Amino acid sequence: MGLLIQLGIFAALLALGFLAGSRAERKHYASIREREAALRHILLVPVRRAPTRSPCRAQLVCGSVVIGMDYFKMTVAAFVNILGGRINAYETLVERARREAILRMKENAAALGGSHIFNVKFSTTNLRGQNNQQSGCVEVVAYGTALLPVRLEAGN
Amino acid sequence: MAKLLLSTLEAIPGATITKHLGLVQGSSVRAKHMGRDLMAGLKNMVGGELKGYTELLQETRDEAIARMEAEAEAIGANAVLNVRLSTASITSGAAEVFAYGAAVVLAQARS
Amino acid sequence: MFERPPPARLPDAPMRIENPPVPEGINVSGQHPLRDFFVQGTLAVGVFAVCLLLLGALAGLLAPHVPFAWEQRAAARFWPQVPASPEEATLNELAARVAHAMKLPADMPIVIHYWPDDCTINAAASLGGHIVVYRGLLRQMESEDELAALLAHEIAHVQHRDVARGFLRGIAAALLLAGVDSVSPVFSGIGTAATQSFSREQESLADADAARATAALYGHTGGALALFSRLQAHLPHGLLDSLELTRSHPDFPRRIETVRAQSRQLARPETGTLTPLPAALRTLREAENNCRSDDLEWE
């Protein structure tokens, strides 16, 4: 009987994870697309040398986000762990996290008045939960240098 | 279609960048299967290269780079410069390889 | 959203800088979460179950080759030295007779340990030929035939090296489970189901041996039948309890049928005169029940 109760709880958590998780994902993607369209004027140039000689002020800008997994994704990942292969469920997770991090970096730059971000780099980590076996959440940090125009002094 | 040029350099000797098309990314998340898990667990006791995992990550890396190339081609670039690779573990069983770079349109310099 | 300052230009840049939108869907391959779940779930569960069963069968095959003397040596230090009681002496005498009837090899000595615990209605065979009988179960016995059937069942486990098998299987299952990132109870559930199915098989064989021993000692299998009928009457039985997949022993109807099949095979009657209990054990029923808890423990 203990086993049946366990299975019941498991099924309930799965359903909850799937329904809540896919809803959260849809809403997040909608928000991402909307903001990407709004911030299209901020350009990312992932090279180290800025192709300009005019005096600028360089400012580090970054955006980071931590996105958690849901029970459904973790279960599917456990299955793929046995069979091997690509984990589709996690791909949307890291993609969302990356796009969100880039958007936040762009928002940071926009707030400062910049329009180009150079040398964009990323850092991804996994923050594990308490139980070492269980997966925790994914953190993505996007950072770069925004070049802001400097007003020339009158004497120049 | 001509193959895309991938490089960790920012400037290719003998070519000029005519257009920057922004950031392109490719990522792939893969897991090892149970057999590799067990062999790796055993190999961990004696040490040495875990060939199974090396292969797994190579496949993942190839796929990530292929996706980055696909993005670059889709926006009309013919080269990706300043390519960076990053590996992260998502779960104790899965690893994500992330490749990103600057999509550009290169023009070969006429000599 | 936020103030949009006029975008700064890079007028002296030698190239144009653009920001074409990247098409979606390249980094996220076709997403069919539910289909993936069912297909991959079934495959994963199937592969895992097959590996578990194979490994369990292998462990079961290897265990009998471990010398019994090793088991004895390993088990020897775990048994406390309790003063001998008349009950224990009687049990050991009866066990010796039963072992003789079962043609147990001489290098597998049986030692019965009597545990005056009324909360446990059980008897168990352990490594090295040590068998524990709890008072909770002993109180239920009404004839020597039943007791002999019980002892024969446990002795059969020793004879078939079931304890060593279960031990090795447990290790194999633990190793396999360790290799799986088991965030869900699915895999531990499968592990349990697999080990229990091996266990049920062993129990059926032991039941058959018990029937044969009773027939050899008393001329009929009445003792074995009485044992299972009595235990069936005493066990709590709800709807959810009868899910055989999760239990380590077969259902009682099945166990009774095993005994009947043996009777038919040996051409012995199912009923007959039941020999009364040995003197030292007759008074156990009247002794005060020292179990404090309301629900009795049954495995």
What report would you give on this structure?
Chain A has a four-stranded mixed beta sheet with strand order 1-4-5-2. In chain A, α1 crosses α2 (71-83). Chain A is of the alpha+beta class and 156 residues long. Chain A has helices at 2-38, 71-83, 88-112, and strands at 43-45, 56-68, 85-86, 116-127, 137-149. Chain B has two helices and four strands. Chain B has helices at 34-46, 51-74; strands at 5-6, 15-31, 79-89, 94-108. The mean pLDDT of chain B is 87. In chain C, 53% of the residues lie in helices and 5% in strands. Chain C is built from ten helices and four strands, in the order βαααβββααααααα. A three-stranded mixed beta sheet of chain C has the order 2-4-3. The radius of gyration of chain C is 29 Å and the shape is elongated. Classes of the chains: A alpha+beta (156), B alpha+beta (111), C mainly alpha (299). At the A-C interface, α1, β1, α2, α3 and β5 of A face α1 and α7 of C.
Highlighted features:
heterotrimer; B: 111 residues; alpha+beta; Translation Initiation Factor IF3; four-stranded mixed β-sheet; elongated; C: 299 residues; three-stranded mixed β-sheet; 4 strands; disordered N terminus
